[in-house]
Amino acid sequence: MAGITPTPQGNGSGYRGIVGPLLIPTWAVIGIFLVLPVLLMAVYSFLTKEFRGGVVWDFTLAAYDQFFLNRGLFGDEPPVIEWTYITIFSRSIWQAAVATLICLIVGFPTAWFIATRPPQTRAIWLFLVTIPYWVNLLIRTVSLKFLIRENGPLNESLMSIGLITDPLPLVNTNLAVQLGLFYSYLPFMVLPIYAAVERYNFALSEAAADLYASRWVTLREIVLPVVKPGIIAGCILVFVPSLGAFLAPDLLGGAKTFMIGSLIDEQFRGSQGNWPFGAAAAMILMTLVLIVLTIYARAQARGEAK
Amino acid sequence: MSTAIDIRSVVKRYGTATALHGVSLSIADNEFFTLLGPSGCGKTTLLRCIAGFEDVTEGEIALFGQNIAGLDPNHRPVNTVFQQYALFPHMTVLDNVAFGLKMKGVPLSDRTARAGKMLEMVHLSAFADRLPAQLSGGQQQRVALARALAPEPKVLLLDEPLSALDLKLRQAMRVELKTLQEQTGITFIFVTHDQEEALTMSDRIAVMSQGRVQQIGTARDIYEAPVNRFVADFIGETNLIEVTVDRIEGETARVTLPGGHAITCPAAATTPGKHHLSIRPERLSLATTGDLTATVERVVYLGTDLQLLTRLPTGEEFHIRLQNSARTEIPAPGTTVALHLEEGAARLLAD
User: Fold this and answer.
1) Is B119 helix (H, G, I), strand (E, B) or coil?
2) Are residues B100 and B91 in contact, defined by beta-carbon separation less than 8 angstroms?
3) DSSP of A13-53, one letter per residue?
4) CATH code at B77?
5) Where is the domain boundary, B224, B258, B283?
6) Nearest CB to A209: which of B72, B87, B90?
7) How far is A206 from chain B (nearest CA, A)?
8) Which of B178, B193, B224 is the C-terminal boundary of a domain?
9) Cβ neighbours of residue A253 under 8 Å, at least 6 residues apart?
């Protein structure tokens, strides 16, 4: 039969000659703008810094050494662990994790709400979620700072209704940074969860209720496990950019909220920068992210094999 | 025999649309009861009201004497087999079957043993550790059945459970369902639009249309003594012809057929005047002489049967089904044949 009727694969083979050339632009873009910069960064992280910015082409592990070890002011003492950058990294991970959690707590009900609207109105709700993203991130972050500053609209209105007597010091706090991250990345949480909930078969909830499960148990035992891939995708999409974010921490945070993004950003600014060190920090960040993603992929594969 | 489910004047409205217009019916304990009707007749809505997925607008639903109309589905001792099975995709077959028992607080070892027994009953013990997606449609159907039966509900609700299966499997499942019902002694309420399914399995059938129960009775009752045009037409094949009731003497009506042929049949609460008469095609046979005649237009060969599409002298279509035997003489199209009406073949309909 396969000899007479063209199979789908057979049909596809007719295009094979075209698909290859059509993919050239994609390969070129990925190669030039993704692979090459990462390789460049990897190479730079092993070079020697030049004092006015830039690098000297001498291979060294100095950048990584500086990141992890403290050898004293003149570099001649026995090495001890350098906590400065590890602290910044841990704080960043913590900040990103909290921002992800806030996004999840707000994003899940939002996504659920949109996915359970009548199909005609869902598009409108999704559209509303994305409207703020038509405005540049920098402008939005500055606006947020304006909103929450000491004599900004938030504090003013809270004081005018008598809820507080003194303005809340929100700017330059962890909370402000988390708020900024939450505001920047909420749609990345809402959209994948929406996609998962939209596909969710509500007969499953009915079946659970029919088998004596309460609403809460149904959510925990049936809904969450079934839409889990959407939740995990949303968490990754929020966590990863939050970890490397520098706009929100820079504008809304202070010295105590210094994050990886700002640290790396600083290394490439003006003559004070240290390119190999910035590159090394970026490589370490990327490694961390890859580890997280690998753990997720493994867990996912195990879940499917089960 | 006690009453399992007593539905009293249940009304269900969605905004201005009314899905159920005061439905009342009682279902006996241990009965295989079928709600039969075309799509949109309210049969699924009624089932969902019993399960608790829909609130009734008015009326009561009593389960063994206790009104359950206000209870949430998780507090009703009834279980449902869903049309598309609704198996939990992330749980193994065994966990699916044990879910209801787990929710009822049955200890792990007991519920595993019981779920295992249920799987044995539906011949799926070998598949306990599979995920639902790894099973065929028929197997998923049986898992859904085992899952709903495992918590030993007082009443099992089945929402068109066989509609997604192919014909062969459907026929096998009919027998299996009936056997299961007899084995477990649980009351089954079965929703279907397939009259053959309803006729083969049910102890009693409620025929529904447009949110109302049209007739309740055994398969034989509703097939042989339909109360109205809808039931006569929906169940099986029939000839519906308009006739004049000349007079009524007690339980018997004297009726004139369009060709002038006069017969007597049960009066069925009619009054003299125009009415519809239902005559099943298989209750007619060819006669040598008579004043009931028809012209053969087409002969359809169906294997076990022959279907004659004929027309009465007054123009009405008239179908006749003859059993196919060696002796059957097949009339040629265009010829006029005399018809013999079996005793009791004609049913006068109230509307």
Assistant:
1) helix
2) no
3) HTTHHHHHHHHHHHHHHHIIIIIHHHHHHHHHTTSEE-TTS
4) 3.40.50.300
5) B224
6) B72
7) 7
8) B224
9) A172, A173, A174, A176, A177, A259
User: Is there a single domain that holds both residue B129 and residue B267?
Assistant: no
Residues B263, B214, single domain; the answer is no
Distance in angstroms between the alpha carbons of the first and the last residue of chain A: 36
The backbone torsions φ and ψ at residue B54, rounded to the nearest 5 degrees and listed phi first, read: -125, 145
- State residue A272's pLDDT score: 76
Amino acid A283 reads: M
The pLDDT value recorded for residue B214 is 94
- Closest residue of chain B to A214, computed from CA coordinates: B74
CB count in 10 Å sphere of residue B220: 9
What is the fold of A84-305?
MetI-like fold (1.10.3720)
The answer to whether A207 contacts B82, with C-beta atoms less than 8 Å apart, is: yes
Residue carrying structure tokens 């309460």:
A214
Quickly count: other Cβ atoms within 10 Å of residue B104's Cβ: 14
- From chain A, the residues in CB contact with B100 under 8 A are 211-212
Domain count within chain B:
2
Q: Over the stretch B274-327, which tens digit does the pLDDT of each residue have?
A: 888 899 998 888 888 877 888 999 999 888 888 899 998 888 888 999 888 877
Q: Side chain identity at B93, as an amino acid letter?
A: V
Chain B residue closest to A306 (CA)? B131
Q: Under an 8 A CB cutoff, do A211 and B89 touch? A: no
Put simply, the answer to whether B74 touches A225 (Cβ < 8 Å) is no
d(C-alpha B10, C-alpha B23), whole Å: 5
Nearest to B158 by CA among B186, B118, B127, B121: B186
Quick one: B134 and B281 in the same domain?
no
Residues B8 and B155 in one domain: yes
Of B74, B84, B86, Cβ closest to residue A212: B74
**Angle made by CA atoms A24, A19, A3, in degrees to the nearest 5:** 160
Q: A212–B131: do the CB atoms touch at under 8 Å?
A: no
Residue whose entry in the numeric block shows the structure tokens 């559209």: A127
The distance of A199 to chain B (nearest Cα, Å) reads 13
Smallest CA–CA distance, residue A305 to chain B, in Å, is: 10
**CATH number, domain at B307?**
2.40.50.140
Residue of chain A minimizing CA distance to B101: A211
pLDDT, one tens digit per residue, over B174-226 is: 988 999 899 889 999 999 999 989 999 999 999 999 999 999 999 999 998 89
Question: Residue B28's closest CA among B193, B203, B223, B225?
Answer: B203
Residue B320 contacts residue B281 (beta carbons within 8 Å): yes
